## 1
Amino acid sequence: MAACQSGFDSLTYPRPPDLRDLLRAALIETDTRATARRLPQPVFRFGGTSVAIRLSGTPPLERLLPMIGSRADAAAHDTAVLDVIGGALEGHEGLLPPAEARSRTVLRATRDIYYLWLNEADGYLTAIDRRAGRGLVWFTAPDRIASWHVARPFLHAIKGFSLETSWTPIHAASVAIEGKAVLIVGQSGAGKTSIALSCVTQGWSYLGDDAVIVRANPARVGALYSSARLRADTFARFPEIMKACLAVSDDAGEQKAEVDMTLLPAQRAAEAEIRAILVPQPGDWSELRLAPMHKSDALRKLMEATRQSMIGDEAAVFAKLSTLVASVPCYHLAASGDPAVLGAGLAKLLD
Amino acid sequence: MQYRLSSSPNVSARSFGDEVVAANFVKGVYYSLLGPAAQIWDGLIAGVAIETVIAQTAALSDADAADFAAAANNLVQALLDEQLIEPAPDAAATAWQPVPGADGPYGLPVIERFTDMEDLLQLDPVHDVEEMGWPHVNPASTR
């Protein structure tokens, strides 16, 4: 009898639920919620991809929307859907890592699923069903959303949705003139924001200071966000930019001015051709210096900087970025503190 | 002996002609091969026998032939130790010709190893799981 019962069970339940099953069940729940709420769905457009954002939770979640760089109100037919959950999603806690694993970073990235749990602000999950074009971002404590989420919302979801496209989000700044851009690559504190905003004060168009999306063949960069984040030691250098400061946040003990670039008369660009990749050198330089660098070094810097904030799919990202680096000149940049010198010097790279 | 790129999904490499970058994403280690090391890499990945690769690349170097061969064999051993390449006795060789150095004869081949990301990963190790969920560790993630 027991054997018969066991056989019946295995026929009905051929395997225990896996992450995709758990995610799909949670997405059915969020579908139900969204249908009941009938709220408008702003659409986040990036690199040829459109994602409809559906908020489901308490009001702090709405802080995530203003800095989306390219937004529309209507979803196209092929738009992916991202549900953003704040607080509890009762009955679906099994999608979260078990309690003993929540102090760690947990990742599952395959062609089918992108699953990332980060131990910050009481926990934050991004889970994307790549086959279905559906996903969710789950803030378990929405009143503790980190300031960088407000400045760069849904960055991991963008990564999750972009695997099968020719685009990939990266950790870099970018500014452009007349559709031709430079990409400024470096880890946090390398000077990306200062260089980009110095160029903006000289008439360059702004694409981003920390996260942009790129593709190779042709080499192009797209804006993701309208935000900029200045470190406290640079506030005095950019008085005009600081006029668009919405707040000063505490980012892991470091003060950051949260700037909304849409409030400034400075131009913004949605997309541009990449004409050069720049890797800033540390130090306080009195003059602008550009020195060609090995492509292998540039690719390594690009991968390391991007891996710092965007985990997973490394082999696919490596393939995309290596093709990009192969087609664009790469330079070490010792940046002059004079914005006019910097802007004029970098403009020569666009010819 | 012939070799090929590691079959591990965690290893990738890209040749830019006169330089190569390789990476092991799980270890967080990146490798740079310049000049003669890049030529040797390209030859190995093309499936050419190591003896041929070393002989043809050494001909573009002004280093002593024995010194070059020793350095090249050390390089290949390092690539094996780092699990960037693996033996491929049945590999079908494709066309390969080493490219002379743009700045004159090559010196000795060396591999550079960069561990910045390794340190970061040790601070915040990523726990890769299988789709079956917790607490199954993905065995492919460990090499």
Note: The radius of gyration of chain A is 22 Å.
## 2
Amino acid sequence: MKRSFAVVTDSTADLPDEWRDRYGIEVVPLKVLFGTETFRDRVDMTDEQFFARLAASSALPKTSAPSPGEFAEVYRRLAKDHDGCISIHIGEQLSATAEAARVGASSVVGFPVNVVDSQTVSMPIAFLCRVAAESPTLADATEAVQRRVPKCRVLALLDTLRYIEMGGRVSRAQAMIGTMLDLKPLLLVADREIKSVDRVRTRSRAIPRMVEFFRTEMPVETLAVMHAQAPDEAEEIASELRRELPDLDVPIGQIGCVLGTHTGPKALGLVYLKA
Amino acid sequence: MAATKAMGVDGPLFKRALLGSLIWLGTNHEEVNRLNVFPVPDGDTGTNMLLTLQSAVEDVKESNAAEVSKIAKLASHGSLMGARGNSGVILSQIFRGFARAVEGKSSLTPAELAAAFEEAANAAYRAVNKPTEGTILTVAREAGRAAAAAASGMDTNVPRVIAAAAAGARAAVLKTPSQLQILRDAGVVDAGGYGLQLILEGMLKTVEESEPAAAMLAEARKPISPASQVSLALPEGGWGYCTEFLIEGMNLDTELIRGQIEALGNSVLVVGEPELVKVHVHTDDPTSVINLAGGYGKLLKLNVGDMSTQHRRILETEGGTATSAPRPNGIGIVAVVAGRGLVEIFRGLGVDAIIEGGQTMNPSTQDMLTAIESVPYDEVVLLPNNGNVIPAAKQVIGLTKKKVHVVETHSVPQGVSAVVAFRPERPADENLRAMKAEAERVQTIEVTHAVRDTRSNGVKVKKGDVIGLINDRLEFAGADYADVIKQALGKLGPDAYELVTVYRGQQATDAEMSRLESEIRNNYPSLEVEVQQGGQQHYPFILSVE
């Protein structure tokens, strides 16, 4: 079935390859900079390569949004086969990506682009893309996605504060972890904010606390388990939740390079849309 | 003043007796310190009792009350405010019982004095949850019994009753090793009991002899080095002036005065009796406070201190910041912590006020009260972080209008775990439950040097040995920090844990630190090791195992 409109997102959506192929979703990569070397997220570098390099690198990499020109190029290409496009991106409180998309879209005359600020990051954006892709029209897609934006949640358990602090997205004070101690923060991305919901000293105790907090958030419409180089723990969490929620498909996703720069390795997450 | 048969115990005599106690305990408190069973450098019993007694006598010194009841009441209140350590708290309860027993009396007959001694001991027993024989409690009771026996005899008088009490105390102290295994093992008598014996002996000397020499009095007045410094977050509107004085007058109404003073400042304390009232207030306008109080009577011992200056000094030395967003649950946290690094760690975790102290100097009830009054919350969680501080911490409850919860943390690691578990949006009961549970989950290893030869928990140690304690119990002795810690970790069973946090003390050298780190990593590769600069004294290493 040929849709009349296109669905665009960026690499921070952690969109599974299978969904990208099945729904024909366009992914615009953000960039990771190690010193003067620039890599396009998940294009020039796989997740495995990225985390290996992150571990070996003394200075932390920087990340940057795609340029408006890059967006314009994508939209111009899509305009040939589509009547319009919905472009769903990482929250504007976290990145300039959505702004770049808007500027890029304004230079493509006669092709309507509905840019959506998802207010979130990672697989909830992929869920929104799927909702859009399954909608009959661009208007329906936009309405269905906008309605779900306030329901997106990312519950992230970081193994260390080092990366997110260096990235400047969360201060220690914000996370109630202004201490020298290397606590494992449990953060919730919701309502355009990153909130600290818990702080735990050891990993083995932090994981059950994350799942416990998630249970207070139920019911949910969709759920995925995310990880950065921690597939076994992610699998354990997913199978526990699949037993509890037999009606839900609980996929496991990998945290990509750009997000990984801020979470650091061994991060785990539960991402969901509240029902 | 020579003792005579007809002499009763009136205000002036009891005041002299207390001053005599202070001198005698002051002369001998180091001896009491040496009796500490535990060979760790800890809040010393002699020092704690002396500071408590000093506080008891503080207001008494300024009072000319003729009635024994008034002097006893001042001593009771002063000791309560200055109570430090376990023995200090029990001593304050002894004073309290005594004050209750003599209420309304201007002078005591020998029999009334003996009855008051007995009631003082009873009050102390009642105040302790699980009274242990062979401690200061037993000594207080035996002193009371001996006094009662002497009072019922023929030809009795006040000096004889006090002499009997002191002798009864001495006999009871000598018997304490037969009642307590730990004393027997260590080969010492009970320190708190001995302290009480000295207090009674000091009274006896005063009553028997002439008035204490001026030189001795001066000696007793010499303040002991300040135990602790309270460092606090800056309250809104600054600190103002700490204003303290006594009002001497007639028919003073403490309630009325308190109400008027409260309108002029905060941290208000107005205590006393119709003839003498002690006032303590933090105010921006000390002149108005003084003018108001001056209308009630003569002001004594006026002391006005600029707290903003003091506060800035504290902050500068600590490099701390004094800002925090108000918490949704309205609960403040106050902790007793020593060591620059540890102070920073607790502050970083969200603690609002820190009372510096703990390991060697136990802060007083008053120190903790001041810190609690300083935080901008009406409900406060207090973390003593040391077993010896817990009793004084619990005394704070009821001394303030604020709701105070003491989470009984026995060590720095327990304190850290408790604070980490605190959530600003969670109600008090849930927070308290979580903090307590987390504190109990963590294991503490402390390493220090033995301050004396002893035997404890079946371990023989020599002065200077490196000793390792697990959760306050002496478990290992050796020559080397790393070896002792390795043994202690082995005893805990490293398989059950994943993270060791090492709080490095001031004494630990870089070489000792790196050797310890590699010992742990080599012997227990499954454990994650995190090193923090604690900066604590006396304990080169404190380890949190979880």
Note: The CA atoms of residues 375 and 533 of chain B lie 27 Å apart.
